[in-house]
Design a protein that fits this description.
alpha/beta; 4-stranded parallel beta sheet; TIM Barrel
C-alpha cells in the first residue's frame, strides 16, 4: 500500500514476551471474555499482562470495539469475524523484513513503547527488552529504518541518556485528560517543553488536533509545527482516517492538502496509506508541472 513505515504498539505479556496490540487491554479487540470469563480485573477490563503468550495466541482478534460492543469503525472489516491472531514483536518484524525482501523495497518499523511506568509497576521493564529485540533484527543506529516512540517524556530521556540508544526517538504528544502517562503535555508544547524534547529526541508525534485551530470555521496552524521544526524536530502527527475526519474538514483530500501544503509536516500516521500516498504524489506532480 506504499507505506514508508509500519507502526507497532507494543505491550508485555505475563511471561515478559512483547506483543503487538493497541493498548494494555485485550478485551475490546478479541474474544478473551468468552475464553477466560473469570480473568478480568476489578475494573472489568482484561489486561495483556495477566496472560501468558500461549494463552493470548489462542484468542481470536477482531476489529476494535467500543465498550458497548459496537465496532469503532463499522465501515472497515466486519467486527467479530475472521481468524486473526496476536503477533509477537519478533513475528511482526520478521513479516516486515520478509515483505521487504519479496517487494524489493524497504519499509521501516515505528514501534511504540506503551505505558512503560505502568509496565514497571506490573513487574517488567519493557524498554530494555524492546531494545534487545530491535538490536537482534539489525535496528541499532540513527540511520536504520526505525523510529522508536513513546508518550512518556521521562522514558524518552531514559532511552537516550540511561539506556544509550542511538535510534531515532519520537516524543508522542497526548492530551492530559487521556491519562496516557504522567507527562504534562500542555507544558511539553511550550517553548521550554519543546526545547527539552529537542535535547533528546529527533521528532514530535502530536495529536493532529494540536496542530491547528479553527478561525471563522477554517483551519489555521496553531504554530506547534513551526516551533518544533525550528528546533530541528521532525513532526509526525497522528492519526489520519478517511472514515473519521477531524472538525473543520469535509474530505480526506482537504485534510491532506492542509497538512501537506499549509503545515508542511515531515510525515504522518494514517490507516489509509495508499490514499495518502496517492495524494502526496499527486501534489508533488502538480508542483513539478507548474515549475
Amino acid at each position: 500500500m506504499g507505506a514508508d513505515y509500519l507502526e507497532q504498539d507494543v505491550v508485555a505479556t505475563g511471561d515478559d514476551e512483547l506483543v503487538v496490540l493497541h493498548d494494555v487491554h485485550v478485551d475490546r479487540v478479541s474474544d478473551v471474555a468468552d475464553r477466560f470469563p473469570r480473568r478480568s480485573r476489578s475494573d472489568g477490563r482484561y489486561y495483556v499482562r495477566d496472560f501468558a503468550l500461549a494463552e493470548l495466541k489462542a484468542l481470536r482478534v477482531y476489529e476494535r470495539m467500543e465498550a458497548d460492543g459496537s465496532t469503532v469503525y463499522p465501515r472497515r472489516f466486519p467486527g467479530r469475524t475472521g481468524s486473526f491472531r496476536i503477533h509477537t514483536l519478533d513475528e511482526e518484524i520478521e513479516l516486515v523484513q520478509g515483505l521487504n525482501a519479496s517487494a524489493g523495497r524497504v519499509a521501516g518499523i515505528y514501534p511504540e513503547i506503551k505505558r512503560p511506568a505502568w509496565h514497571r509497576d506490573e513487574g517488567v521493564d519493557i524498554a530494555p527488552i524492546m531494545l534487545e529485540v530491535l538490536e537482534r533484527y539489525g535496528y541499532r543506529d540513527k540511520d536504520d529504518p526505525v523510529f522508536l516512540q513513546c508518550f512518556d517524556a521521562d522514558e524518552i530521556v531514559r532511552l537516550r541518556r540511561d539506556l544509550g540508544t542511538r535510534l531515532k526517538l519520537i516524543q508522542l504528544v497526548g492530551d492530559n485528560s487521556w491519562g496516557e502517562s504522567a507527562t504534562d503535555y500542555d507544558r511539553l508544547q511550550s517553548d521550554d517543553g519543546l526545547a527539552a524534547v529537542a535535547a533528546v529526541a529527533d521528532g514530535l508525534g502530536p495529536w493532529f488536533e494540536q496542530l491547528y485551530t479553527l478561525q471563522a470555521g477554517k483551519p489555521a496552524s496553531s504554530g506547534l509545527t513551526e516551533r518544533a521544526q525550528a528546533l530541528g524536530l521532525d513532526v509526525h502527527p497522528y492519526t489520519f482516517r478517511l472514515d473519521s475526519l477531524p472538525p473543520g474538514f469535509e474530505s480526506f483530500d482537504a485534510l491532506l492538502a492542509f497538512v501537506i501544503d499549509n503545515l508542511g509536516v515531515d510525515g504522518l500516521f494514517t490507516d489509509f496509506p495508499d490514499v495518502a500516498r496517492r495524494a502526496i504524489e499527486d501534489r508533488q506532480a502538480a508542483r513539478k508541472a507548474s515549475q
